[in-house]
Design a protein that fits this description.
A six-stranded mixed sheet has the order 2-3-4-1-5-6, with helices on both faces. The protein has a two-stranded antiparallel sheet with strand order 7-8. It is built from 15 helices and eight strands. By secondary structure, it is of the alpha/beta class. The longest helix has 25 residues.
Length: about 475
C-alpha cells in the first residue's frame, strides 16, 4: 500500500428553501511549512477533464475544479474551500494520521465546475445524484495527481477514502455501494443530509417534518416548551377566521406580511450552524435566552408560558432582525441576511431574499453559473425533497402546520417554470433504495442532533479499514 486519499464534494450554498447543507470555512493557519518543502499553496486550483454525461461520453468533457495537497503523503515502508485539505478538518486529520494526500472535488453545477456555461433547465438535466457519483469514480480512475508518482496512485494501487458530511455524506455510502472496488472505505455520517434525521438517517423524505424533531429534543427544554406554545397559538389563529387576531400576530413580528403563510414557519435554522462545543453567544442560544431569561432569572423546564414567549419572541425578532435584514436586502447581500437571521415564525419568506426561490423567477435566456441556491434547489425538486413542513395534527412541534409540502414544492414551479407546471413529487423513494444501509462495519447512527458532528467517529474505523487493503 503506497498511499490513500480523502475526497470530499464541496457544496457551497447560501440561503435557500429548504435549508441547504452549508459548509463552513476553515482557518488554514501558517503555510510557511509548504514553502520549505517546495509544495504548492493550499489554495492552488487544479482542473480535471470530467465527462459531461457518463451515459454518453461522446458529449465531451468539462473542467472540474479540485484542490489537493501531498503535505502528509508518505509511502508505507518508507471556493475558498481549499482549507478542507488541511488538518483543520477531518480530511486533513485523516491524511496526516495515515500519511495520505487530501483532495477536495467540487460538485458538478456548483462553483466553477459546470458542464455547460449556464444553469438553464436543459443543462440541469445532467445535474443528478447518479452523475455526481460517476464523477467521483471517473476522477479516481483517471486523475493524474499533482505530486510525486501522481500517475501511479489509482484505486487499484492505493486505497481511496471517500468522506463527507451532510449531503456529501449521503453520496459517500452510495458511491461505495455502487463502486465497492473503487472506494475502499467511506465516512459513515449519521447526521447527514441537512443534519437532522429520524432513526433511519440514510433516508430521504419529501414530507420531512422530522427535520425539526432533533432540534426540539436537544434544545433547552424551557425554550422548546415556549416555542411550542407560540406555534400552537399561531396555528390556532391562522386556521381560524378572526382576521383581527391574525393581523395582531403579524404585527407582533414587525413586518408587513402579505399572507398568513409568511408568518407560518419556525425556521430554527441557526441550530444547523452549531456544534456540541458551540458557546452561549450563538444566535440560537441568544434567541432562547430572550424567551427564557426574565429580570436575570431563567425559566423552569416548563418555560414562562405563552404570553411572555409570544411578546419576547416578537421583540427579539423586531430588534435583532428586521432593521438589519432591510439593510441587507437593500445592499443585495444574501450572506449578510443569512448571518443575521434569528429563529422566528416569520422566516425567510418574510422579506424577499436576493435569488430567493420563493419569489417568482423571471424567465431569461440564460441563468448564470455559480448560483448555489439554484443548483441545490434543482436536486431538492427532483430527487431529494426535504420539505420541512409542520408536524402532523396532535403531535406538538416547533413548526407551524401552515408550512406544507405543497407550499415548498410550489417554489419549484416558480424557480424552474420551464421544467414544472405543477408542484413536483421528488423521486426520494428511488434515492433511498440506492443508498447504503447501516452495518456493524460501517454504521449509520443518529447522535445528538448536531449537523455532521459524528464525522470524528470515522477515525475509529479508518485504521482498521486501511490495514485490510492489499
Amino acid at each position: 500500500m503506497s498511499f490513500w486519499t480523502v475526497a470530499l464534494h464541496v457544496l457551497a450554498v447560501a440561503a435557500a428553501i429548504p435549508k441547504p447543507p452549508g459548509i463552513p470555512m476553515v482557518d488554514i493557519g501558517d503555510e510557511s511549512k509548504l514553502a520549505m518543502r517546495a509544495l504548492p499553496p493550499y489554495d492552488t486550483v487544479y482542473y480535471f477533464d470530467q465527462l459531461i454525461d457518463h451515459d454518453d461520453p461522446s458529449k465531451g468533457t468539462f473542467q472540474q475544479r479540485y484542490w489537493h495537497t501531498s503535505e502528509y503523503y508518505q509511502p508505507v515502508n518508507a471556493a475558498p474551500y481549499y482549507g478542507y485539505v488541511t488538518n483543520s478538518t477531518i480530511n486533513g486529520v485523516l491524511a496526516q494520521r495515515y500519511h495520505g494526500s487530501a483532495i477536495v472535488l467540487e460538485h458538478r453545477f456548483f462553483g466553477e465546475s459546470n458542464p455547460y456555461p449556464n444553469l438553464n433547465v436543459d443543462s440541469l438535466k445532467l445535474h443528478t445524484i447518479a452523475q455526481a457519483i460517476e464523477d467521483d469514480v471517473y476522477f479516481a480512475q483517471n486523475v493524474v495527481l499533482p505530486q510525486d508518482n501522481g500517475s501511479e496512485l489509482g484505486p487499484d494501487k492505493a486505497p481511496w477514502v471517500l468522506i463527507g458530511g451532510s449531503y456529501p455524506g449521503a453520496l459517500s455510502p452510495r458511491c461505495v455501494l455502487d463502486w465497492v472496488f473503487i472506494f475502499w472505505c467511506r465516512s459513515s455520517p449519521s447526521v447527514h443530509q441537512l443534519g437532522y434525521f429520524k432513526p433511519r438517517s440514510d433516508c430521504h423524505e419529501s414530507d420531512f417534518w422530522q427535520y425539526y424533531e432533533p432540534i426540539r429534543e436537544n434544545m433547552p427544554q424551557n425554550c422548546s416548551e415556549d416555542v411550542k406554545a407560540v406555534i400552537s397559538h399561531v396555528d390556532d389563529v391562522f386556521f381560524g377566521s378572526d382576521s383581527a387576531a391574525q393581523a395582531a400576530v403579524r404585527s407582533n413580528f414587525g413586518l408587513n406580511f402579505t399572507s398568513n403563510e409568511y408568518v407560518a414557519g419556525a425556521y430554527l435554522w441557526t441550530w444547523q450552524d452549531m456544534q456540541p462545543n458551540t458557546g452561549p453567544f450563538a444566535a440560537f442560544y441568544q434567541f432562547c435566552d430572550s424567551l427564557e431569561v426574565k429580570d436575570g432569572v431563567s425559566a423552569s423546564a416548563s418555560g414562562w408560558g405563552l404570553d411572555n414567549a409570544f411578546a419576547a419572541w416578537g421583540n427579539h425578532f423586531r430588534t435583532t432582525y428586521v432593521d438589519l435584514a432591510a439593510d441587507c436586502v437593500e445592499s443585495d447581500d444574501t450572506d449578510c441576511l443569512n448571518a443575521a437571521h434569528p429563529p422566528s415564525p416569520a422566516a425567510v419568506r418574510s422579506i424577499p431574499l436576493p435569488n430567493d426561490n420563493s419569489a417568482s423567477v423571471e424567465k431569461r435566456a440564460d441563468y448564470p453559473v455559480d448560483d448555489a441556491n439554484r443548483s441545490w434547489f434543482w436536486l431538492v425538486c427532483n430527487e431529494l425533497g426535504f420539505s420541512q413542513d409542520g408536524t402532523p395534527i396532535g403531535q406538538g412541534g416547533i413548526v407551524s402546520r401552515l408550512n406544507t409540502v405543497q407550499l415548498y414544492m410550489a417554489d419549484c414551479v416558480s424557480t424552474f417554470p420551464e421544467a414544472f407546471s405543477v408542484p413536483p413529487t421528488p423521486s426520494a423513494d428511488a434515492v433511498n433504495k440506492a443508498t447504503a444501509k447501516s452495518t456493524d462495519r460501517q454504521p449509520i447512527r443518529l447522535l445528538n442532533g448536531f449537523h455532521a458532528s459524528d464525522l470524528t467517529s470515522f477515525l475509529e474505523y479508518a485504521g482498521e479499514w486501511l490495514a485490510e487493503f492489499s
